[in-house]
Amino acid sequence: MHITASMRVTLKPFVPTFPCFSNVVVSLMDKPEVDFGLKVMGGDLMAIPGLYQYVQKLIKKQVASLYLWPQALEIPILDASLGATKKPVGILHVKVVRARELLKMDILGSSDPYVKLKISGGRIVPSKKTSIKTKNLNPEWNEEFKLTVNDPMSQVLELHVYDWEKVGMHDKLGMQVIPLMLLKPHEKKELTVGLVKNLDSNETRNRKPRGSITVELTFIPFVEDTTGLNGPIDIYMRKETVPKTSSFVNRPGLLLVTVISAHNVEGKHDNNNPFALVVFRGDKRKTKLLKKTRDPIWNEEFQFMLDEAPLEEIIHIEVISKRKHRAFGFASSKEALGHVDINLVNVVYNNRINEKYHLINSKNGMIHLDIKWNAT
Asked: C2 domain spans which residues (predicted)?
C-alpha cells in the first residue's frame, strides 16, 4: 500500500523540557491518494472490474473523515504530569438556532438533519449532538450546549450537519468552523455562516450551495480568584448556611478531577491490573487499565460541567483491579483495591486541592488526586 498526502503538522504547546513540545498534532490538508495491490494465491483481486476504484474511494473517505483538517490526530510526546497541556480557561455557550436551505438527500426530496459540534484541539471529548429534525430542509433547533475552551486564540468551533440514516453511514450535508478569537468575553454573538463540503478552498464541490446555519455564541471565562468565601467551611455545612457574601456560590463552573497516581495498591494476587473509577452524580468515568503494577501512574483528567458550586456533594474514587481468567476464555473478574470519598465543599472553598489520600479498605494504599473548581 502506498499513501500520498499533504499534511499539516503542529508542535504544541512549547515547554521548557526536551524535546521542547508536548504534543504533535497531525491533519490532512486534502484527501489522501491511495495506491495498493491485493493478491491471493497469485491472483490480483484488484483486477476485478470496478473493485479497485470502489476500495480506493472507500479508504480515502474513511481516512478523510478522521484526519481531514480540522479533524486531527493528536500524539502525546511528554507526560501530562509535566504540566505541558493547557488547562481550561472558560466555557463556550452555544445555541444552535436554525439551518436554512439544506441539501436534499432523500429520494422524496428532503433530509433528516442534525448537528454535531465540538471545539478543535484540547482534550479528546465526544461531540455534542442536536436532536434530529425529520423531513426538514429549514430546521429550527434552539438547543443549547456548553463546551470547554482551552485556548480561545487558536481553537475553533466545528459545526457538522448530517442527514440521519436508519441504516448505514449518515450523509454529510455540510460543515463550517468559527474561530473563537472572534468572540469577546461575556458578549453574546449571533452568527449565520454558509455550509461547505470541507475546508479545502480548491474543492470544486465547495462551490455548490449547501445552505447556512445560525448559532448564538457566548464565551464565559473562568474567574481567576474564587477564594471569596469568608472564614472556614465545615465539611458538613449545608449550602443554605454558606455566607451569601460570596459571589461564587450560585455560579456555574467546571469541576476538574485529575487522577494522578496510586501507590501500594495490594490485592489478592501478586500482580494487579489497576484502573481508577470516578463516580460523581451517578456519572462514571474510568482511567486506562495498567497491567502488572501496584504503583500505577494515570495522569488522566475528567471534567464535570455544573450549574452551581458543588457545596453539598461528595465525589467517590475507587481503585479496581481487573483480571482475565484463561480457563474461561474471555471471562474476567474485578477486585476492589480501596476507595476514597472527597467532600467537594473544601475544593470550592480552597479553589483547588492537590493531595495524597489513604485508600479506605486498603492496608497501605494511597491515591494522588488533583481537584479544581473553576467558576465562571
From this structure: 69-193, 238-357
pLDDT at 341 over 90: yes
Do residue 62 and residue 108 come from a single domain?
Answer: no
Model confidence at 216, in pLDDT bands (50, 70, 90)?
Answer: very high
Question: Could you tell me the three cell numbers for 370?
Answer: 488533583
Q: Look at residue 330 in the predicted model and tell me its pLDDT.
A: 59
Can you tell me the distance from the alpha carbon of 300 to that of 124, in angstroms, rounded to the nearest whole number? 12
pLDDT more than 70, % of the chain: 84
**pTM check: above 0.85:** no
Nearest in space to 82 (alpha carbons), one of 26, 25, 21:
21
Whether 69 and 117 map to the same domain: the answer is no
Residue-number span of the structural domain to which 323 is assigned:
253-375
- The more confident residue out of 97 and 15 is 97
Give the β-pairing of 43-44 and 113-119.
unpaired
Please name the residue that has the C-alpha cell 474514587: 317
Q: Is the pLDDT of residue 225 over 50?
A: yes
Is 55 within the bounds of a domain?
A: yes
